[in-house]
Structures are given as structure tokens and as C-alpha cells.
């Protein structure tokens, strides 16, 4: 015998008005944004159509002779992403502990930690890459530094949230039994957080691979340098090969990363 489900209550009139006002505000802001941009939309669309008709067919006819060169730069890009991501995964750990209130028990220290992580996240990787290219020269090391610093901010934030969500009863029980700080760290805290730490680090590597593909555009090494030369020389056939390699590599990394993260967590 099936039970009848109670009829759904209609949304209160105030909620309907609230959602309607939010929708109107979003649409108004969207229209205002286009109104403040000095652009002739009709001409822009016409020019885009003309360029697409000229460029897209050449993108779908990749220059296979450049495969070796493109693959070599893609490997360099992967190295930049891996080295930067690994450094960030390590640097983010102490900052994550500093920003977690249940690890420091100090609002001042936690506020400092969160402020540091927020300040780091304020700078996109491309801006960091420009700064490091000026500081250390146009080398892949500049790209590694940009990825490492940029990813540290986000990973540190995620790590702190993981730490704040652990079961503190385990820690308190160990403290009551006379365990010292090192024992609590390695037997009470790390076993709870390490799966999620690794999962976030691997996921961040996926993001960093994509970010690394454009760093070479400003001289920070990797396949972005080829993107710069191909676009500057209007060599759309080579650009097609570059995009093909990037798509294949990123797709494979996404698949492998998702598989590993599912096995870890």
C-alpha cells in the first residue's frame, strides 16, 4: 500500500519576488556591462565570422611535420606543471595548518594564515609568470615558480578546510592518554587528512597543466612559446597541431587523475 505524498506547498510570494529581483539585477548588470564596453557588436560578430571562416579550416588541417617540436614543448610544459604542483602541495601544508583554527587555537594566527593565502590567490599565474620572468629571466624556472606560488594559495585554503573538518575527538582522546604532539600529528591528524590532501593535490595538477600551457606566452617556458610564435606568424596549421596535442594530453591527464582520486578517497 503506497502512501500518498503530501502536496507541495507553493513558494511564498516573498521568495518569488526575491528570485525575480535577483534575475532582474543579473540581466540589468549584463546589459549595463555591454553598454559600457566601447564595441560595435554587429561589426565584431561580422569580423569574427570572417576570421573563423579563414582560420578554422586551417586549424583542422594540423601541420604534422611540427609534431616532434610541439611534443617536446608539451613535455616541458608537463614538467613545469608537475614541479610547480609538487612544490605547492608541500608549501601549502604549513600554511593550511596555520589557517585552520582547530590546529592553532589562535584567532590571530589563523587570521594571518588566511590573509596570506588570500593574498597569494589574488595573483593569477600569468601575472606571477611575468614577475618571475623579470626576476629570473625567460626560463622554465620562472614558470615553475609561478605555478608553485599560485597553487599554494588555493591548496592552502583547501587543506585548512580539510583540517577544520577532522574528528577532533580522536585528537582529544590521544591527548587524554598522554600522547605527545608528534604522536598526535602522525597518528591522529595525518591519517585523517592525507587522502583528501593527495586528492586535492592531484586535482590541482590537472589545473596547473592547463595554466602552464599559456605561461610560455610571456616567456616562462613551455608550449605557450609555440602558441605565441604560431599566432604571431599566422601559422594556423601549426596552431592546429599545438591545440591537438594539448587536447589529447589534457584529456588523458584528466582521465588518469580522476581514476587515481577515486581510488584514494
Automatic annotation (TrEMBL):
Residues 74-257 form the ABC transmembrane type-1 domain. GO terms for molecular function: ABC-type phosphonate transporter activity. InterPro entries: MetI-like, MetI-like_sf, PhnE/PtxC. PROSITE patterns: ABC_TM1 (PS50928). One of its GO terms (cellular component) is cell envelope. Its main location: other. The chain crosses the membrane at residues 16-35, 79-103, 214-233, 239-260. Keywords: Membrane, Transmembrane, Transmembrane helix, Transport. It is found in: Cell envelope; Cell membrane; Membrane. It is a multi-pass membrane protein. The keyword tRNA processing does not apply. Signal peptide: none annotated. Belongs to the binding-protein-dependent transport system permease family. PANTHER family: ABC TRANSPORTER, PERMEASE PROTEIN CC0363, PUTATIVE-RELATED, PHOSPHONATES TRANSPORT SYSTEM PERMEASE PROTEIN. This is Phosphonate ABC transporter, permease protein PhnE. It comes from Halalkalibacillus sediminis. The gene is phnE.
Amino acid at each position: 500500500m503506497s502512501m500518498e505524498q503530501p502536496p507541495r506547498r507553493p513558494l511564498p510570494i516573498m521568495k518569488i519576488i526575491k528570485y525575480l529581483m535577483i534575475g532582474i539585477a543579473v540581466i540589468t548588470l549584463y546589459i549595463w556591462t555591454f553598454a559600457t564596453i566601447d564595441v560595435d557588436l554587429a561589426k565584431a560578430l561580422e569580423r569574427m565570422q570572417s576570421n573563423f571562416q579563414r582560420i578554422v579550416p586551417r586549424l583542422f588541417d594540423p601541420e604534422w611535420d611540427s609534431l616532434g617540436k610541439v611534443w617536446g614543448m608539451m613535455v616541458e610544459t608537463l614538467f613545469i606543471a608537475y614541479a610547480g604542483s609538487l612544490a605547492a602541495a608541500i608549501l601549502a601544508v604549513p600554511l593550511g595548518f596555520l589557517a585552520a583554527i582547530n590546529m592553532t587555537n589562535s584567532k590571530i594566527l589563523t587570521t594571518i594564515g588566511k590573509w596570506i593565502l588570500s593574498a597569494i590567490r589574488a595573483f593569477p599565474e600569468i601575472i606571477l609568470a611575468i614577475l618571475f620572468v623579470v626576476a629570473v629571466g625567460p626560463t622554465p624556472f620562472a614558470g615553475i615558480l609561478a605555478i608553485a606560488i599560485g597553487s599554494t594559495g588555493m591548496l592552502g585554503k583547501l587543506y585548512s578546510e580539510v583540517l577544520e573538518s577532522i574528528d577532533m575527538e580522536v585528537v582529544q582522546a590521544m591527548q587524554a592518554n598522554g600522547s605527545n604532539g608528534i604522536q598526535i600529528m602522525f597518528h591522529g591528524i595525518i591519517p585523517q587528512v592525507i587522502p583528501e590532501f593527495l586528492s586535492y593535490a592531484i586535482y590541482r595538477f590537472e589545473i596547473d597543466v592547463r595554466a602552464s600551457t599559456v605561461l610560455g606566452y610571456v616567456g616562462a617556458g613551455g608550449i605557450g612559446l609555440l602558441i605565441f610564435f604560431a599566432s604571431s606568424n599566422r601559422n594556423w596549421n601549426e596552431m592546429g597541431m599545438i591545440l591537438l596535442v594539448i587536447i589529447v594530453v589534457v584529456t588523458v591527464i584528466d582521465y588518469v587523475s580522476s581514476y587515481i582520486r577515486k581510488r584514494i578517497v
